[in-house]
């Protein structure tokens, strides 16, 4: 939907697209021009070539350095459309807004005859609140084919999101081709089955699962996203969530501690297991090589290293690990993880990149100030990181985890976590109230997270993500003052656009019968239970 912009002025009249409409303008905005031409030509059937005359019948992109970064000015009158911006991101956002002012049928992927392609006359001055407006997609738990990833990116772009946090590795699969270590995908990219449902006693489904992205796939994904002003931030999750890594290269596991009976193998269960990387220098060297190949594929300034949910019981039980800690002057397993994160940060920083990790990277101390923290365990990580001077991406699980069930209805498919409604996402304030004005400047972005343990296809992701991701997109764009009633009214119009785009979103009335999963048991919790767990998990960073 069209977010509440900085300024809207309504004018009399309108502009109607026709066979004589031209589309073009400043070459710095060629990506936005190509995207808009593709959307409009497909549904209208008009040629929309570059016959640009700013006095009549045209859609023109115009460069103006006085427009705010990432923002745009959209002017529509009887003579045409002007999209004015200082940068490519703003130009693309202006193009998206133009499509939102047209009939929803403009989003169809084939010619739609008999439509009056008229845009109401208006002037809109608009700019985003946050520079990082993101969504995390987990393709490690369930692999998503490249074509579905491209569709996911296109839908995110149509909501003016500009970061895809790409969770590429976990216990259940490694999804990125690394030439130096081919077993990461040959072995780590495949598992024998998947847990069927969320309950701890859930059986396996008996169905092999896997897949990975070749380097050509990833170059395509990055380029496709860039055309839509989206930056792809890759994540290689370390040193925990490493079962797939150790299955491929067992020497990377802690050598002098007994493994579980089914190791080494890619994990077939959900949750967290004890697999963790050995902390020898060989492991550090291995992942320096991995990140060299990652950085070759992903031009993003930010590179994700995970750092979350690393069970350290094997480190504590390992004589080898204790000896390594003593050599390095480290007095705890938390300090050992912090040492490992610093080794990765130094390598990334030397290449001109910034380390990005979950809020556990604050534990153990010594985190370099250039690191950026994704605060997921409530607001605690955001408050602790910002007070220490670290930049923060706000993504607390209780407000933006879109794998959480949306209601208490018994038909919600494989319910996990506490209920999280569209209204609760929309009313989320990313900047914690207890921060000072200077500390608040470190909250540089917000994102929703989509963990896919229970999402095995694009249509299931659609159901979990939309329309809650629409609400998050507006949270990321506008200021503290938001109008829930106005959003809910605009959302009804926006859902017709999602219909035209083929998005199988969740209806307000709940799931359709075919969206339910009576065959797979869930594991729901209450907000009170989740809050108590998060408070316990974050005690170290709140000390």
Automatic annotation (TrEMBL):
Superkingdom of this protein's organism: Bacteria
Listed CDD domains: GH20_chitobiase-like
EC number: 3.2.1.52
Domain Glycoside hydrolase family 20 catalytic: 130-478
Class in the EC hierarchy, top level: hydrolase
Residue ranges of domain Beta-hexosaminidase bacterial type N-terminal in the record: 2-127
Pfam families to which the protein is assigned, alphabetical: Glyco_hydro_20, Glyco_hydro_20b
Statement: the UniProt record of this protein carries the keyword Hydrolase: yes
Alphabetical UniProt keywords: Glycosidase, Hydrolase
Gene3D superfamilies in alphabetical order: Chitobiase/beta-hexosaminidase domain 2-like, Glycosidases
Catalytically driven reaction(s): Hydrolysis of terminal non-reducing N-acetyl-D-hexosamine residues in N-acetyl-beta-D-hexosaminides
Family: Belongs to the glycosyl hydrolase 20 family.
Name of this chain's protein: beta-N-acetylhexosaminidase
Organism from which the protein derives: Plantibacter cousiniae
